[in-house]
Structures are given as C-alpha cells and as structure tokens.
Write a structure and sequence with these properties.
Elements: H1 11-27, H2 29-32, H3 41-58, H4 60-79, H5 87-99, H6 104-117, H7 120-131, H8 137-149, H9 154-174, H10 179-195, H11 200-214, H12 223-235, H13 239-252, H14 257-278, H15 285-293, E1 307-309, E2 315-317, E3 319-320, E4 329-330, E5 334-344, E6 352-357, E7 363-368, E8 382-386, E9 389-397, E10 400-409, E11 416-417, E12 420-421
Parallel strand pairs: 3-5, 7-10
Antiparallel strand pairs: 1-2, 4-9, 5-6, 5-8, 6-7, 8-11, 9-10, 11-12
Helix pairs in contact: 1-3, 1-4, 3-4, 4-5, 4-6, 5-6, 6-7, 6-8, 7-8, 8-9, 8-10, 9-10, 10-11, 12-13, 13-14
Keywords: Repeat, TPR repeat
Protein name: Tetratricopeptide repeat protein 5 OB fold domain-containing protein
Pfam families: TPR_11, TTC5_OB
C-alpha cells in the first residue's frame, strides 16, 4: 500500500500524523490487505516504521523546539509499534515523562514498554501514574492486563484477578464502543473463571464481552479475540467452533504458532477418541469380555440403592440405567457405570479422557475436569457416574467426520471408582493460559 501524503500545519502535527499512519497500518491492516497477506503484516509495519523514523528525523529540530517531550513521546510510540521490546523506545519515553510528567500518553507507552520487557511492577507503576493524572481507558485496560501477569502468592491471586476485571470494566464504561477494551474485559473474566470457583456466569460474561469486541472493526481481526474465544469453546466441548476459532486466529497471524498447534492437537485428539471408541480401546475380545462380565451393582458403592446429593443440594434417589437409556444433556436421578477400557493420551492434560464400556458393550468417552495430575482412573477400574451430562460430539472439519457420545464430569468428587467415592485429594483446579500476545 502506498503511503499517504501527510498535510499538516505544524511540525508536531506532521509528526503526529506520521505516527497515526503507522498505527493505522498495524491496527487496521486488513482494511487494505487480504487475509492471504497476513504473514507480511510484520514486515510491512517494520518497513513503514523505518520510513516514519526517517521522516521524523527530518523534522526533529523543529519539533523539539515546539515541544520536545511531545516529540520524544511520538518517536517512542513509533518505536513501540512492534510486539517486541525496544530499548530506544524505552529511553525516549523515559525522557518524555521526565520533561512532562503530565503527559498521560507517554506514561501509557512507557508502561507498555516495560510490559514487553517483562518488568510488570514498573509497568503497573506507569499505568497507575497515568491514572493519577487522568482517568484514561488505555491506562485502565493496560493495567488490567498487567495485573493478570503479576507474580503474587496464591492467597492474593484471586483478588488480583478481580482487580483486573474491575479495571477492564472501568475502561469499557469510558468507551463502550471500543472493542479492544471489551476484548481485554473478556480475557479478564476468562482468567478469573480458571483462577476462582469456575462460576459458569464468568464464562458467559467473557463470551458477551467477546461478542461486543467482534462488533468493532478495529478488533474483529485481533487473533487473541478468536484464540481466547476458541479456548472457551474447547472447554465447553463445542469442538467445531473451537477448531474454526483456532484456525481463524492462525490465519490472522500465521507467524504465531500457538493457535495452529492448538488446532492440530484438538483435531488429533478428537480423531483418537473416536477411533478408540469404535475399536473398544483396541482391547482383544478375550480381555474385554471378562471385564464386561465382571460388572456388578456392588461396584456402585454408595450409589447402589442409595441417595446422591445433587449440585442443587437436594438428596435424590438414583436409578441405574444403561448408556442407551441416557438422553443428551443432564440426566437427573440416574446413574451409569462401566469398565475403563483405555485412557486417551493427548497433547494436553485437560480434560482427562477415558473410554467406558457398559454391560451391553456400548462404549462412550468420559471427560473429567478439575482432576489432580496423576489421579485419574486406569484400565480395568469400574466407574459410576451420577446424573451424567451427555453430549453428542459432532465435528466436520477438513474432510474429517467425527461423531461419538461423551459424558462430561466437571469434578471427580462425584465419581465412584471400584465401589468407593473419590476423595478431595483427587481434585485440582483446571488452569488454562489466556493469550495476550496481540493486545
């Protein structure tokens, strides 16, 4: 794209227009470029950065005479346009805030510089410094990001993430049309979900935030938006949407390998689960049949003719049924059991997945969340699941058809394994990283 001519009145206005042009290319790259040119984005931004620096150098003396702090801010901001840390940007921005401590934009850019350097405490101080002078949406949302990355003890972790959500909310209130603020609020909600009690409302709020971000043409092509939303879909086992989300993130930033790796790993996982179900865990008949024949109701343990305290706190009686008797969704007042015939080993430990076969030789997969590492079930274990939540996994992706039935278990503490209820040592909170590479 040919660089647009800059027509302004003063040298500083020209400098501002030059830097604005640079950031327009970075933030609105796909307004003038096809998705097939995504891999060239960094190169094109780097080329325009060099041109911008050359043009800024020509008017340097005039700009510094007019307002040296503002010129240093603009040059530092230009140098800060790329995703990696730039030492020269840091020096220019440090000088700018010394010359004019009231320059909020300089504090914000300096904070981002420290963030890229990995110095979160200094970044936090910069954004707080900016906010002490003016309530600014950029300061608030950047502070939200930094708070999520601060190294704090386990006791303070949830409070810090809650503060991150609060700052992102303030940013949205200042400008409800800014998609980037909505995107960062979604990321904060998503982080809080995996850090705290995993309240489903937090995931819903994250998805609402991402839907607002999707409406802003400045963020609709942000790879992080599509990646983090795909993380939620994957967790909710909406695998078709998750695969498409990872693919979209990868297409928007082909040089960022994580999204493509997630897409490939998820597709391989789904194909592996389907294959193991169809092949009954690849167990030979002489080993499989005795396992099925050994199933008896004594393995239900406390669920045999007993009661179960549901998530709503009610004590209910459970009726033993076969897999074929289950319906999609939650199956209230029912319990199923079977034998573990294989574990599904994938690239990621979440969820813990195994195949379970009932007395009629019907084989389904089971996914368990929030289970401690190394505390899963093994081949030959009998497993009883109360009020099972059932989903039909259907995916058609890249000429691959996947179709199988799965039981989702959000906590291992409801399971009865070999006649005994699992104890608290089997539970651990699921941790999933939220991407902020492109924010």
């Amino acid at each position: 794209m040919a660089a647009k001519s800059i027509e302004t009145n003063t040298p500083l206005e020209k400098a501002q227009a030059l830097v604005d042009r640079l950031y327009t290319l970075k933030n609105n790259y796909f307004d003038d470029h096809d998705i097939s040119e995504a891999a060239k984005k960094n190169e094109n931004v780097s080329l325009l950065l060099q041109k911008t620096l050359d043009e800024l150098e020509v008017i340097k003396d005039q700009c510094e005479t007019e307002n040296k702090a503002k010129y240093l801010l603009l040059r530092g901001k230009a140098l800060n346009v790329l995703s990696h840390f730039n030492e020269d940007a840091l020096h220019d921005l440090e000088k700018a805030v010394k010359l004019d401590p009231k320059l909020v934009e300089a504090w914000n850019e300096l904070g981002e510089c420290y963030w890229k350097k990995g110095d979160m405490e200094s970044a936090k101080n910069c954004f707080n410094g900016a906010l002490s002078k003016e309530k600014d949406k950029i300061s608030l949302r950047q502070l939200s990001m930094v708070l999520r990355q601060l190294k704090v003890n386990e006791k303070d972790r949830v409070k810090t993430i809650e503060d991150s959500v609060s700052k992102a909310k303030e940013a949205v209130l200042l400008d409800a049309n800014d998609g980037l603020s909505w995107c960062i609020l979604g990321n904060a909600y998503l982080t809080l979900f995996f850090t705290s009690s995993q309240n489903p409302k937090l995931l819903k709020q994250a998805m609402i935030s991402y839907s607002h971000a999707d409406k802003d043409k400045n963020t609709v092509n942000n790879p992080d938006l599509h990646y983090n939303r795909a993380i939620i879909w994957k967790y909710e086992e909406e695998y078709q949407k998750a695969l498409e989300g990872f693919a979209r993130a990868s297409a928007l930033d082909p040089l960022w390998s994580t999204s493509e790796e997630k897409e490939v790993a998820l597709l391989q996982y789904l194909l592996k689960v389907q294959s193991l179900i169809l092949n009954k865990g690849q167990l030979k008949t002489r080993r499989l049949q005795p396992m099925i024949q050994s199933l008896n109701e004594s393995q239900l343990g406390p669920y045999r003719g007993g009661s179960y305290t549901s998530s709503g706190g009610k004590s209910v009686e459970l009726k033993l049924v076969d897999f074929d008797d289950l319906k999609e969704g939650i199956n209230l007042n029912k319990v199923v059991y079977g034998k573990v015939i294989c574990n599904v080993v994938g690239e990621e430990p979440v969820p813990f997945t195994f195949c379970l076969i009932d007395k009629k030789s019907v084989c389904w997969s089971v996914t368990i969340y929030n289970i401690a590492q190394g505390k899963g079930v093994i081949i030959g274990d009998s497993v009883a699941i109360p009020e099972p939540f059932v989903q039909q996994i259907k995916v058609n992706y890249k000429e691959k058809d996947i179709n199988y039935w799965n039981i989702r278990v959000d906590t291992p503490l409801v399971l009865v394994v070999n006649g005994k209820k699992l104890q608290i040592d089997k539970q651990a909170m699921t941790e999933i990283a939220v991407s902020i590479v492109n924010n």
